[in-house]
């Protein structure tokens, strides 16, 4: 504690004191934006005020400057393919004032006047998600591939293990590329070769390089998916004010944060100074002197709002004459009134159409909805995040299996009665006014021991916006049967009992891939390469059993004949069990403690609130003292899992399932006695 | 909006756990407010920060110097306080236990009165009511309300059809006299004036809190998380939360709402928009208004269940709670600009939608490549409500006028569906049609607004059009008319006389029933009207006969339905008084049974109480004997202790029996009260009031025959 305080003091010495009371000032609206597509151009000539460029989903690139608090269009392109990346670069020796945009597999270059000086179409198959430009070198990332172009010719390329999220180039005498890879970490490339690798456990999402570092150092900050309680990081930027450097963070939950960074000592943890909440995912946060000489933070959001955050004294103080804001407000009021009238006219025309005898075809554009399904964490919940450009009124969810559900605190979830007394589930999520992002967590209700899983769960989500347009977008999801797995690096340091399943038959790679989506989350980049043959290896016998069930079920549906053979070691349960023996013991203890805690709580001991607390024997006192921390145990789940292993092992080893055998095991597990002996005995007997 | 950093103006710890909702603040000495709360089963704590140590029965708490403890031998269910004694300005403490009510003068350490409450005590409130000049204590039980004065005399009594959960005195009809607003667990807010119910407001869940706002407005909170404000009997706004509102208070022109999870928010009075919110460190136990700092204006006093007390001053516009920073006009401009952009963005999205529509208008229907969001422009949605006697429900038929299908239908209606307020139909892909039926089963006879959102498109669309419609179900929608001639209309009926043309009756029928065809009189000369109806819920019959001489007869086995019909008709015809003659053998039989039951239980209770007292006495004698024996004969001691244990077990068994008889008594009393309530509703105005008074007398006298007579003809004393 005390060391932090001292550090805090020393910080004040190198920076001027600044107030973090920032006000929002809205500049304008563009289309839906992708992450990091807003860039502030360097100042030109005498003027300190900087222009900025923003590209949107409609394919429009605009370059704007702010005059009297109002945006002035410098240039604006025609609509086209969605712009997914915007970068600035310099032609040799000058300022970085060339604007590059990537859309699909195309890259275009614009001068600051809006003249196209470069336009190339690459042979890349996937959309370019990020890029960087060094002199006449162009580095493009699309899918899992980083491609290096020199003088517009492909120079080299590198294929990563997973999707490339972001890239930064460090150019001195040699060019080194820092590449951020989904679920994995970061790698450093030089000349198309891997020279270094780092694993980032929290799942990186975005990186940024501090301005003005020594060119020989490779330093970058990354944002993470898990977001430490807040939303995942969507974009990063830098904000310089009063001699203080801040890293600016824009998150998916709509929060914008400023962290003070010690530029002399990057090892120091950046300190959070400011948080603003704008209500929808933030796609760009960059600092610059946009409206005046004083620096401000320029923000773009998913739905296409562009606004500045600047010190209150500067936003509303003497520097900005009050009438400017009032004029601006007046103008906007007129504009909105005009739009309202126009909309009313169009609305009426639309209504009239519904009564007309001549049926045309109404084809409104698809609602801008983004969604992602996150893999399960160890508690089994899978989370789907839905982001909309317009405020949502409600979600309506249908799944073909019963699921347990949770949702945002800002939304009300109700499981509805369905008329068909089937196994399906209907639920509605009603959102608070202005909700643009909402998450729903789903978990299968575990009755796995009684029925074997034959397919994944299909979930339909209809997203209904609160206002116009009155259309509902359908999002279809597939929850895999085994949601816990995420692809990982192959490590074989431990001794495990591997169970194997081999499948061969007349199926294509695509078919097997689609079957696998029923089982496992995520994509399968390098799992399957051979037609008609697949091999699965796991130390979890239940996993193998599930895959076997699903593959056989799917192949029957497609009427494809497959041969399956299993290789199950006799000691698999025992070996797997040894792996979590300690955990099992812990959880057992915990479950006992909870029973004790509940019993003690029933005594209503704390009503007297003595200073020393109630007088109890040592064991009880320990439970009582830690009553706040012992809340839940996974003991039940563990017992279930182990039992399932045992049953699956018996099934796959073609042994008969005696009911009393598993009952015996269950009793042994629950009492935490002799289970090891039981397993040893039972599995040895077979061999 | 931010989770605000509002700081409380005062903060204290009681060092006691607090039972939620059993908290009050009272001025026992007439000037200094003292927080009083239940701290556990039978313990009451009184916080007196202004000195004046309470003496007498109360003991100084060991856990807190400024807190006194008061131990009762019974569970504390409700607490209230008020200046009941007319001669002093001091607040008297009212303590409600499951079957009794005790009024205690804390300052003088004397009992004011002690009264049995056989119907239970759920809520106590104090205040002025009607023309009564002194402060009354009003007690809400399981199926009745009762008012008593400071000497414990009953001032009035009435039956309520549900368990009373919230009560306030409030001048509902603005005549300068307070009425009693009663919130019940049967989802009604009822207004009692002059011992007559003058209004009932149907809500969508059990009413958990009520709070006055100003002369014309009051706030309410429901068990399903809804809170809102009524103005002159019309709902101004409501919002719903996942949490339950524990208390509502009007403070500084805002509605402060305290949620059970410890969140407190301040809302704008006219819209319900949240202005500020804070989160307590523990779950909430209470929120009250009191001038706890003695500054001349009441603060909001929030109490958590861990015993933390936080005080907040009244909220002030513009400045919030911070008097230092005032918002500048330019800041206002900035906010307005952001808001205008919000509007502009929404409008632009809508415009784009229409533009895209117009652009694709030329696409012909024959086009094979149908986009994933397409739909014919002249698609319309039609909705009808049909009776379905086979499935004992109403069917909402939702259909389109072309080959598009109803992919899903969401029906939002309150109080109709077993699980929440939304019902969804989402047919299997094979069953997709342009027509979809949604079953509706309103469990009670109140008008319901049914909002329908239907998703219309093609079976494989990726986007569907939302069609919205609202339909009102009339009050008696669950009754289907039939034309068959009926001779035997049963022996259950109510008759009365009205002087009204059948033409007007006809309008009432059309408004309140869902008839396949509107009821039309054959000619102007028609003087009588006969309607036969079938109840979809239980397939029972209802016959309504309006004779030419003004005699009306409603034949149904259901006394409640008869009452509902009479009340509805009386409101429609603006009748102030109505007497009726009723014949409901089912209800009469039930009444006899319940009366019998109640008196039996009464006898059993006194017998059990005597037994318990006897055993308790024995134990008190045996226990010291056993202790004495320890000194000389261990075996003897053991024997005596064994006896004590045995007796103790007997006592415990007795206790269980007593508890279950108590529960039975409450249930019996409740169904008895329900029948009386139904009898009251067969009459209007002074006649219904007379039924209340007469039946109270008859119940107290245990006179079954008189009660039956009252059900049949009302109180015959009044003519």
Automatic annotation (TrEMBL), chain A:
It holds the Pfam family BBS7_GAE. GO terms for biological process: cilium assembly; intracellular protein localization. Residues 38-228, 230-310 form the BBS7 beta-propeller domain. One of its GO terms (cellular component) is axoneme. Residues 531-567 form the BBS7 platform domain. Residues 365-475 form the BBS7 GAE domain. This is Bardet-Biedl syndrome 7 protein. It comes from Spodoptera exigua. The lineage of its organism: Eukaryota, Metazoa, Ecdysozoa, Arthropoda, Hexapoda.
UniProtKB/TrEMBL annotation, chain B:
InterPro entries: Bardet-Biedl_syndrome_2_prot, BBS2_CtH_dom, BBS2_GAE_dom, BBS2_hp_dom, BBS2_Mid, BBS2_N, BBS2_pf_dom, Quinoprotein_ADH-like_sf. Signal peptide: none annotated. Residues 585-681 form the BBS2 hairpin domain. It holds the Pfam family BBS2_hp. The keyword Cytoplasm applies. It is found in: Cell projection, Cilium; Cytoplasm, Cytoskeleton. GO terms for cellular component: BBSome; ciliary basal body; membrane; motile cilium; neuron projection. The keyword Cytoplasm applies. It comes from the Eukaryota. Residues 486-572 form the BBS2 platform domain. This is Bardet-Biedl syndrome 2 protein homolog.
């Amino acid at each position: 504690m005390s060391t932090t305080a001292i550090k805090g003091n020393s910080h004040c010495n190198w920076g001027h004191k600044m107030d973090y009371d920032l006000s929002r000032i809205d500049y304008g609206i563009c289309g839906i934006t992708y992450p990091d597509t807003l860039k502030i151009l360097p100042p030109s000539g005498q003027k300190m005020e900087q222009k900025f460029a923003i590209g949107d989903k409609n394919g429009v690139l605009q370059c704007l400057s702010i005059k009297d608090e109002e945006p002035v269009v410098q240039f604006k392109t025609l609509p086209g393919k969605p712009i997914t990346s915007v970068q600035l670069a310099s032609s040799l020796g000058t300022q970085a004032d060339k604007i590059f945009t990537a859309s699909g597999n195309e890259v275009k270059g614009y001068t600051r006047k809006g003249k196209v000086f470069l336009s190339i179409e690459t042979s890349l198959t996937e959309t370019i998600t990020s890029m960087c430009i060094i002199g006449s070198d162009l580095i493009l990332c699309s899918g899992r591939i980083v491609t290096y172009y020199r003088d517009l010719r492909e120079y080299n390329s590198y294929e990563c293990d997973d999707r490339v999220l972001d890239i930064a180039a460090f150019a001195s005498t040699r060019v080194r590329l820092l590449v951020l890879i989904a679920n994995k970490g970061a790698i450093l490339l030089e000349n198309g070769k891997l020279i270094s690798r780092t694993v980032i456990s929290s799942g990186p999402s975005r990186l940024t390089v501090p301005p003005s570092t020594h060119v020989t150092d490779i330093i970058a900050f990354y944002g993470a998916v898990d977001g430490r309680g807040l939303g995942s990081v969507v974009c990063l930027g830098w904000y310089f004010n009063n001699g203080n450097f801040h890293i600016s963070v824009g998150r998916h939950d709509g929060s914008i944060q400023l962290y003070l960074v010690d530029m002399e000592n990057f090892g120091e943890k950046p300190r959070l100074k400011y948080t603003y909440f704008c209500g929808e995912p933030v796609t760009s946060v960059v600092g610059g002197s946009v409206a005046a000489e004083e620096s401000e933070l320029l923000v773009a959001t998913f739905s296409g709002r562009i606004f500045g955050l600047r010190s209150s004294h500067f936003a509303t103080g003497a520097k900005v004459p009050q009438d400017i804001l009032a004029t601006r407000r007046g103008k906007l009021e007129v504009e909105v009134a005009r739009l309202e009238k126009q909309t009313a006219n169009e609305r009426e025309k639309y209504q009239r159409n519904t009564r007309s005898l001549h049926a045309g075809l109404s084809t409104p554009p698809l609602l801008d909805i983004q969604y992602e399904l996150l893999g399960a964490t160890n508690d089994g919940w899978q989370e789907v995040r839905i982001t909309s450009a317009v405020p949502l009124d409600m979600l309506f969810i249908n799944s073909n299996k019963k699921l347990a559900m949770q949702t945002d605190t800002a939304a009300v979830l109700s499981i509805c009665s369905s008329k068909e007394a089937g196994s399906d589930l209907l639920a509605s999520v009603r959102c608070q006014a202005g909700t643009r992002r909402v998450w729903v967590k789903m978990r299968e209700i575990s009755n796995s021991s009684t029925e074997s899983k034959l397919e994944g769960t299909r979930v339909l989500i209809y997203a209904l916006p609160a206002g116009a347009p009155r259309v509902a977008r359908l999002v279809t999801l597939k929850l895999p049967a085994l949601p816990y797995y995420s692809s990982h690096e192959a490590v074989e340091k431990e001794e495990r009992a591997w169970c194997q399943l081999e499948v061969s038959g007349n199926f294509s790679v695509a078919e097997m891939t689609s079957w696998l989506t029923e089982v496992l989350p995520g994509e399968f980049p390098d799992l399957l390469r051979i037609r008609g043959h697949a091999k699965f290896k796991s130390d979890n016998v239940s996993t193998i059993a599930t895959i076997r069930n699903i593959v056989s079920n799917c192949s029957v549906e497609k009427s494809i004949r497959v041969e399956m053979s299993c290789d199950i070691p006799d000691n698999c349960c025992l070996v797997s069990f040894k792996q979590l023996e300690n955990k099992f013991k812990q959880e057992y203890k915990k479950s006992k403690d909870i029973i004790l805690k509940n019993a003690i709580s029933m005594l209503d001991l704390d009503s007297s609130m003595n200073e020393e607390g109630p007088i109890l024997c040592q064991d009880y006192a320990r439970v009582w003292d830690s009553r706040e921390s012992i809340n839940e145990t996974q003991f039940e789940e563990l017992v279930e899992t182990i039992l399932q292993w045992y049953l699956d092992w018996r099934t796959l080893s073609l042994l008969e399932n005696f009911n009393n055998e598993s009952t015996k095991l269950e009793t042994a597990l629950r009492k935490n006695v002799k289970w090891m002996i039981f397993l040893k005995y039972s599995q040895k007997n077979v061999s | 909006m931010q989770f605000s950093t509002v700081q409380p103006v005062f903060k204290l710890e009681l060092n006691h756990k607090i039972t939620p909702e059993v908290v009050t603040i009272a001025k026992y000495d007439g000037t200094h407010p003292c927080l009083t709360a239940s701290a556990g089963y039978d313990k009451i704590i009184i916080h007196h920060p202004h000195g004046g140590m309470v003496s007498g029965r109360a003991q100084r708490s060991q856990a807190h110097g400024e807190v006194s403890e008061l131990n009762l031998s019974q569970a504390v269910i409700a607490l209230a306080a008020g200046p009941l004694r007319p001669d002093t300005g001091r607040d008297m403490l009212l303590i409600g236990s499951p079957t009794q009510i005790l009024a205690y003068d804390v300052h003088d350490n004397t009992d004011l009165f002690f009264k049995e409450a056989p119907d239970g005590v759920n809520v106590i409130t104090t205040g002025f009511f009607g023309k009564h000049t002194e402060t009354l204590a009003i007690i809400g039980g399981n199926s009745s309300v009762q008012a008593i004065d400071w000497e414990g005399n009953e001032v009035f009594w009435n039956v309520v059809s549900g368990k009373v959960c919230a009560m306030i005195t409030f001048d509902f009809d603005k005549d300068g006299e307070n009425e009693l607003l009663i919130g019940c667990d049967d989802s009604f807010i009822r207004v009692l004036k002059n011992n007559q119910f003058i209004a009932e407001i149907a809500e969508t869940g059990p009413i958990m809190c009520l709070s006055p706002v100003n002369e014309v407005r009051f706030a309410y909170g429901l068990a399903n998380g809804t809170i809102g404000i009524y103005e002159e009997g019309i709902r101004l706004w409501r919002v719903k939360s996942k949490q339950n509102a524990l208390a509502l208070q009007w403070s500084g022109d805002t509605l402060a709402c305290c949620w059970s999870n410890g969140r407190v928010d301040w809302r704008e009075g006219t819209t319900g928009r949240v202005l500020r919110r804070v989160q307590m460190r523990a779950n909430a136990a209470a929120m009250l208004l009191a001038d706890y700092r003695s500054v001349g204006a009441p603060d909001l006093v929030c109490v958590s269940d861990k015993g933390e007390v936080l005080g907040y001053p009244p909220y002030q516009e513009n400045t919030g709670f911070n008097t230092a920073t005032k918002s500048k006009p330019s800041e206002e401009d900035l906010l307005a600009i952001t808001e205008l952009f919000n509007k502009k963005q929404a409008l632009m999205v809508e415009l784009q939608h229409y533009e895209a529509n117009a652009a694709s208008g030329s696409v012909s229907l024959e086009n094979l490549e149908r986009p994933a969001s397409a739909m014919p422009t002249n698609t319309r949605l039609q909705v009808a409500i049909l009776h379905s006697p086979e499935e004992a429900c109403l069917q909402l038929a939702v259909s389109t006028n072309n080959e598009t299908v109803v992919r899903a239908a969401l029906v939002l209606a309150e109080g109709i569906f077993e699980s929440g307020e939304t019902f969804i139909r989402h047919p299997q892909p094979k069953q997709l049609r342009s027509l979809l039926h949604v079953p509706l089963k309103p469990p009670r006879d109140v008008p319901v607004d049914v909002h329908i959102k239907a998703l219309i498109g093609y079976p494989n669309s990726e986007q569907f059009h939302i069609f919205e419609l609202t339909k009102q179900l009339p009050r008696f929608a669950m009754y289907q008319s039939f034309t068959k001639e009926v001779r035997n209309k049963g022996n259950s009926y109510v008759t009365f006389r009205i002087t009204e043309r059948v033409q007007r009756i006809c309008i009432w029928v059309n408004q309140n029933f869902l008839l396949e065809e509107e009821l039309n009189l054959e000619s102007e000369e028609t003087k009588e009207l006969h309607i036969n109806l079938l109840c979809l819920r239980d397939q029972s019959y209802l016959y309504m006969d309006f004779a030419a001489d003004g005699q009306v007869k409603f034949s149904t086995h259901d006394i409640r339905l008869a009452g509902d019909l009479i009340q509805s008709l009386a409101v429609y015809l603006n009748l102030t008084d109505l007497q009726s003659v009723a014949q409901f053998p089912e209800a009469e039989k039930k009444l006899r049974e319940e009366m019998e039951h109640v008196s039996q239980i009464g006898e059993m209770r006194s017998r059990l109480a005597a037994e318990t007292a006897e055993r308790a006495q024995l134990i008190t004698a045996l226990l010291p004997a056993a202790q004495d024996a320890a000194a000389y004969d261990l075996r003897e001691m053991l024997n005596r202790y064994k006896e004590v244990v045995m007796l103790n077990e007997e006592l415990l068994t007795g206790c269980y029996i007593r508890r279950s008889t108590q529960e039975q008594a409450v249930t019996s009393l409740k169904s008895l009260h329900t029948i009386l309530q139904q009898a009251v509703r067969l009459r209007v105005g002074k006649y219904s009031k007379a039924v209340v008074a007469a039946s109270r007398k008859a119940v107290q006298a245990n006179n079954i025959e008189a009660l039956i007579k009252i059900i049949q003809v009302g109180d015959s004393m009044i003519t």
